[in-house]
Amino acid sequence: MIKETEVDGVPTLIAPVSGQMHAGLVFRVGYADEVLARAGITHVVEHLALFRTGQADYHYNGRTGAATTEFHLRGSEQDVVAFLTGVCEALSALPFERLEVEKQVLRTEQAGKSPSPSEVLALWRYGARGFGLAGYPEYGVPNLTPDEIRHWVGTWFTRENAGLWIAGDGVPAGLRLPLPSGRRWAPPPVTSALPVTPAFFQAPMNGTAFDAVVPRGPAAMVYAEVLQRELFRELRQADGLSYTTAAGYTAHPHDTAIVTAIADALPEKQSAVLGGMVDALHTLAVGRIEQTEVDAVIAAAQGDLQHPDAAAASLSGLVTNLLTGRPIHSPEERTAQLGAVTLDEVRAVAAQALRTGLLLVPEDHTADWAGYAVAPITSETVVEGGAYPVIDDPNDRFVIGPAGVSRVIGDQAATVRYTECAAMLVWPDGGRQLVGHDGMRVAVEPTMIAADPGLLHHIGAGLPPHLVVRLPPRDPSTIPRPAPPTPDPPPEKRGGLLRRRKS
């Protein structure tokens, strides 16, 4: 039984739990609400809000997701009161004396991780905004100021934009949520950087990965598990090609969801694993799914929902639904929804997944043989403006105009228009890198271009300040320099200079 109430105007969901009480305060804001040049601001707020909690005798943490930020803990009723009230009080008076230290902590965290396959897929599918920011560094962290952070907190971390869940007997006595008033924000839009699907791109990975946009709902959840079983059966059990095979379902805060699949491989088995992934997706898409397979998946999922703590385990997701305008379903209702899923519905999701699919293939591999289009790594247009050659290559030039910048190599171009600029990175030596909403990058190095330094200094001068990232000095050895004179390489060997992202 899930009970709905409110605490200090914050909508609250409560469900009984067999073990220790746990609870979470969720705000409808995440990294998908940020812009690339200020990426990480929500994460900084999360860290600052938790700082004064320090070491505690109970387990607590924070999590910044795509569309929500959550502060949660497991402990006694007194712990819940102290933690949640303390988080709200901290949000109104963040410890900005700690700001530079937390920036360093986050930069260290960033340096110690590599993008997961799902994050790389997000970059290529959504571009350099919204849900695509999962695949980018938190560029904004070094430049954030207390005033910017205060404005962000005042905009997003408000009573109307929050939801509370409690796994326990009820609201603990004395719990207060002293949050300022604001408004409920709609979910971030779902963007696209893919002109056509299914599509593929290359990335340095020992294996392959896939994602697809499908209708949100129980049929898609069943499909994801059917796909997981197919990959495990064919790539792990039958042929021993992969150690890790996995597929999962992630709901968007709209009417769609993402199904993601991965399969790892030894270098010499990459082609076979790629073929096995393609075959598995095609097998399901043409309807070769057995009723017994669907029945087994549904029975397992319904069994999980029979657990006494199933309602409590679902509370965090249900509060997210509440904040994004989605219905709230009890375990009993979800059990009935799963039971109503038909074989034809699962087959329809499988066909949709293939039509909207994005495939990550290892370097030096392709998937055009399987009907996948090449995801764009170049731009279709070039800005109007003056042309300036690269010092060591007459086939390589920049076009700089009032609307933006293009780099043109032979008949290929990468263009970022100022009206579609997600971020401009600037170094003290004058180097600039512009990133477009579609993920295209143009790096302009004063050492490499035959143009007046004053002209280069004015590139992006009219961009709003919140789109500019000012970086510290670079190691001189990392600044590009003209190469010694050599014979021109064949044009086909130079296509890789235009990339949507650095490998």
TrEMBL record:
<dbReference type="InterPro" id="IPR011249">
    <property type="entry name" value="Metalloenz_LuxS/M16"/>
</dbReference>
<feature type="compositionally biased region" description="Pro residues">
    <location>
        <begin position="479"/>
        <end position="489"/>
    </location>
</feature>
<protein>
    <submittedName>
        <fullName>Predicted Zn-dependent peptidase</fullName>
    </submittedName>
</protein>
<feature type="region of interest" description="Disordered">
    <location>
        <begin position="467"/>
        <end position="503"/>
    </location>
</feature>
<dbReference type="GO" id="GO:0046872">
    <property type="term" value="F:metal ion binding"/>
</dbReference>
<feature type="compositionally biased region" description="Low complexity">
    <location>
        <begin position="467"/>
        <end position="478"/>
    </location>
</feature>
